[in-house]
């Protein structure tokens, strides 16, 4: 590829609405352009990256035994009605009618479409297992599209679905996909973690998210370097503390103290000179119309996803101020666990607490030296607080490390949720009809491109991992008007192409500094700079990631690049 013929519209300044590095740099470096909110043109450089990401995905999915299909993006409403999701998926689903007034949707996911295909074609246990995948466009009408390709309304996704005769075989394929995804992201040169995750709207028995580690990630995860435990903070489990021995012997007399207009934990902490971890926070939730109180240590927050998993109600939400007063008879901000007529649950973080501060159930008053067991009864200790870095690993007890991450892949063990709803069955070896057991496995292809930039950039631009870079090498003649420089650059360009490198030559008649800035901005892994020493048969190789520079003979350019790649 010649730069002079390429469509690479680089920009000096970032667009005003771009907030995170990938959004800014992918636009500035000429990979994408905004068409409308959440909608982007993918330009030639971006297409090259996406094709390389897709190639790695295809190679590893095929290696794992999956087969590629291509399903329609227009989904008939009757399939979603059959699965029970047409009215519950939410406003993110883009719905419309055709000329015959039939309802359709642009596919946000494809469980219904693939299940319909398989149920029509597979009848016997002899046809299973089966793993089918596709790489194509998905549509979700995000309430607030943001961060460029991170949260767009139209995006490219790889989604795969497996079908099995039993739970055991479905679990085998689940771990096959786990290993496949690990190879995919490793080949892409990304630092990632596979973490236990919530199954969300997709459903299923358990799942893992694959997170690219990045400071700008929307999600938080914790992991243990000692035993390998890793989970998103929506799912991460606490290590249940032991009840302190002889804790009753430490109990002090409960005292009521005046705390005028002091409600929030931070205010109580400052007013009473007590650290937040010695204050009890009491929240009231409504679970399917019934009120429950939940106690948590003052420096902790309830993780809503974990809470919903514990109570598993159809409607789970925080109580309103009016509901709090109705169900407790106490004012908000001074809630006390003592004397409540509704059940009190307590997070694991409350177990070690002794002689703590709690609300008095009376406006402008708190209680000191409160103790569970003596002053109020805990119905059950539950794990609902968000886990943080430094907490004990639930498996081995070592300190957990906390990072931010970007979800780029998610695998689910679905079970029979969709096969039962849509009557996707097979006949086993005994002639008995049974529902197929399913798995689901997704990768956000366009999101991977953005996540790679979030993880790999500096002040000068993008630093692409070699395997997914738009080009491996850029040859930069500093002055194309000088015949010797131009001819040497052309010779190196042709040699690199013959040797299998993906290479572009910057043959523009432009200032060297302008070319160098574009090369750094675009992020091509290796720059071969052909300058004044070309007359001596010497050129310079710059490694974009490290900034290292090496002077090498023209005949050894290929050898040196391969050496830098580790062979």
Automatic annotation (TrEMBL):
One of its GO terms (cellular component) is cytosol. Its EC number is 6.1.1.15. PROSITE patterns: AA_TRNA_LIGASE_II. It comes from the Bacteria. PANTHER family: MITOCHONDRIAL RIBOSOME PROTEIN L39/PROLYL-TRNA LIGASE FAMILY MEMBER, PROLINE--TRNA LIGASE. Belongs to the class-II aminoacyl-tRNA synthetase family. ProS type 1 subfamily. NCBIfam families: PRK09194.1, proS_fam_II. HAMAP family: Pro_tRNA_synth_type1. This is Proline--tRNA ligase. The lineage of its organism: Bacteria, Pseudomonadati, Aquificota, Aquificia, Desulfurobacteriales.
């Amino acid at each position: 590829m010649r730069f002079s013929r390429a469509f690479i519209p680089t920009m000096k300044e970032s667009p005003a609405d771009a907030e995170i590095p990938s959004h800014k740099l992918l636009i500035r470096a000429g990979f994408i352009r905004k068409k409308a909110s959440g909608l982007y043109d993918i330009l030639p450089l971006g297409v090259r990256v996406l094709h390389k990401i897709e190639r790695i995905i295809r190679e590893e999915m095929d290696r794992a035994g999956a087969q590629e299909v291509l399903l329609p993006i227009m989904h008939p409403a009757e399939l979603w009605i059959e699965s029970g999701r047409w009215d519950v998926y939410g406003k993110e689903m883009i719905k419309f009618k055709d000329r015959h007034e039939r309802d359709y949707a642009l596919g946000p996911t494809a469980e219904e479409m693939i299940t319909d295909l398989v149920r029509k074609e597979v009848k016997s246990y002899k046809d299973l297992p089966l793993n089918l995948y596709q790489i194509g466009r998905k549509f979700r009408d995000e309430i607030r599209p943001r961060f460029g390709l991170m949260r767009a309304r139209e995006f490219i996704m790889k989604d795969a679905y497996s079908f099995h005769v039993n739970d055991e075989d479905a679990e085998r394929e689940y771990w096959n996909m786990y290993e496949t995804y690990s190879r995919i992201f490793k080949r892409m040169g990304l630092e990632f973690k596979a973490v236990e995750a919530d199954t969300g709207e997709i459903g299923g028995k358990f799942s893992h998210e694959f997170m690219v580690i990045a400071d700008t990630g929307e999600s938080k995860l914790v992991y243990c370097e000692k035993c390998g435990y890793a989970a998103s903070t929506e799912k991460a489990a606490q290590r249940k503390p032991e009840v302190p021995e002889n804790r009753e012997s430490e109990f002090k007399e409960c005292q009521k103290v005046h705390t005028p207009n002091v409600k929030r934990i931070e205010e109580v902490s400052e007013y009473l000179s007590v650290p937040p971890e010695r204050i009890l926070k009491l929240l009231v939730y409504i679970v399917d119309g019934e009120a429950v109180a939940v106690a948590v240590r003052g420096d902790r927050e309830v993780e809503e996803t974990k809470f919903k998993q514990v109570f598993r109600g159809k409607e789970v939400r925080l109580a309103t101020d009016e509901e709090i007063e109705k169900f407790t008879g106490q004012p908000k901000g001074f809630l006390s666990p003592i004397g409540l007529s509704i059940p009190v649950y307590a997070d694991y973080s409350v177990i070690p607490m002794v002689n703590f501060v709690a609300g008095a159930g009376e406006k402008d008053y708190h209680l000191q030296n409160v103790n569970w067991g003596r002053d109020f009864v805990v119905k059950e200790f539950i794990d609902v607080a968000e886990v943080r870095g430094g907490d004990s690993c639930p498996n081995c007890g070592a300190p957990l490390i906390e990072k931010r991450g970007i979800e780029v892949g998610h695998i689910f063990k679905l079970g029979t949720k969709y096969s039962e709803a849509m009557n996707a069955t097979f006949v086993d070896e005994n002639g008995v009809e049974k529902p197929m057991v399913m798995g689901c496995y997704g990768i956000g292809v366009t999101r991977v491109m953005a996540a790679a930039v979030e993880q790999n950039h500096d002040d000068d631009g993008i630093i692409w991992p070699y395997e997914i870079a738009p080009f491996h090498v850029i040859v930069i003649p500093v002055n194309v008007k000088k015949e010797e420089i131009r001819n040497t650059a052309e010779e190196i360009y042709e040699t690199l192409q013959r040797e299998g490198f993906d290479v572009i030559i910057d043959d523009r008649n432009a200032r060297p500094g302008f070319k160098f800035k574009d090369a750094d901005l675009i992020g091509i892994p290796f720059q071969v700079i052909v300058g004044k020493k070309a007359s001596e048969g010497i050129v310079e190789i710059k490694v974009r990631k490290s900034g290292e520079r090496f002077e090498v003979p023209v005949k050894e350019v290929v050898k040196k690049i391969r050496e830098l790649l580790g062979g």
